[in-house]
Amino acid sequence: MALRKPSDATFEAKHHFFEWCRQNNKTKFSLLITGKTGVGKSSLVNALVGKQVAGQRFQTADKVIPYDVEHLEGVKVDVWDSPGLIDDNDDDEGGAGKEKEYLAKIESEITEELDVVILCLKMDDKRFHRDDKDTFKILTETFGKKLWKNAVIALTFANKVEDPAGGNREDYFEHDLANWREAIHPFLSNTLKLDPELVQSLPLVPTGYYRPVSVLPNRINWSSDFWKACNNVAGNSAPFRLTRLKKDEEQPDSFWKKTWGTFKEYFCAFFFASLLEDSCFCFARLQDDSRRDQHNF
User: What does pLDDT average to over the chain?
Assistant: First the structure.
């Protein structure tokens, strides 16, 4: 079976995407690209825009920058490139305070509704690092679990994945992709406490560089798959605004809150059991009194 030309596949995916926008009366589609520093956000932006616009030398890395991808069939597509989070290699001072500053910038500067949030991981890293997990965690703690209803995970630099032992590149790529799923899904379910159905349906899309031929080692056109994933996510979830959670919203229960909840459960159970026991006792007394009265009569 002959493969379709990648350009044809991308064109078809974009056609369905813009057709969906038209049917839903959307004139603007907005994506936020986020992740830790050095994970390939700018490379993905350049691939989507189709030219070198992000990540240029000496470009400020602590700003939220919007890019206009294209304006076709009456739809304007905006891509927001955000500052990198969890930068362990940053020589500047700031630490955790800088993360809060960057998240505040993301919230204040992106005032429009977002259709899709792209969370980036480096596929050629071979491992789901702790700082990747910390990035997902801080985004969830800041903006809430609702973020994930509109999320797509992009595995960047997928073009560079190859078997170090020189084996079949396509087989190695598929095995590596399966390993990423096995590493990410338990973290989202068990640590971030996301709904298991949401985790299973979350798109995991390998992405590469911008090329006239955007085919990955598994012979899949990543650009086509990317736009399909964005289309599916936006079609299943309403657009949302990035707003930070209130202090107690979606936060883990404190020890005393859990203790009080347990106490209320036991108290209610004891109260109703005692009430039932008293009712049965009273009913038995009434029966005895009734039989005694009849006997005396």
Answer: 76
For the ranges 16-20, 122-126, 177-181, 228-232, the lowest mean pLDDT is seen at 16-20
Considering the domain architecture, whether residues 162 and 42 belong to the same structural domain is answered as yes
Last residue of a domain, one of 208, 236, 264: 236
Give whichever of 174-178, 210-214, 275-279, 291-295 has the largest mean pLDDT. 174-178
**Domain total for the chain?**
2
Q: How many CA atoms lie within 13 Å of 71's alpha carbon, on the beta-carbon side? A: 5
DSSP assignment of the chain equals -PPPPHHHHHHHHHHHHHHHHHHTT-SEEEEEEE-BTTSSHHHHHHHHHTSS-SS-TT--SSS-EEEEEEEETTEEEEEEEPPPBS-TT--SS-THHHHHHHHHHHHHH--SPBSEEEEEEEGGG-S--HHHHHHHHHHHHHH-GGGGGGEEEEEE-GGG---TT---HHHHHHHHHHHHHHHHHHIIIIIS---HHHHHH--EEE-----SS-B-TTS-BHHHHHHHHHHHHHHHS--B---PPPTTTTPPPPHHHHHHHHHHHHHHHHHHHHHHHHHHHHHHHHHHHHHHHHHH-
Contact 176, 161 (CB under 8 A): yes
Q: Indicate if 200 and 264 belong to the same structural domain.
A: no
Confidence tier at 2 by pLDDT (50, 70, 90)? very low
Flag whether pLDDT at 255 surpasses 50.
no
Q: What whole-number percentage of the chain has pLDDT above 90?
A: 25
CA–CA separation, 267 and 93 (whole Å) = 52
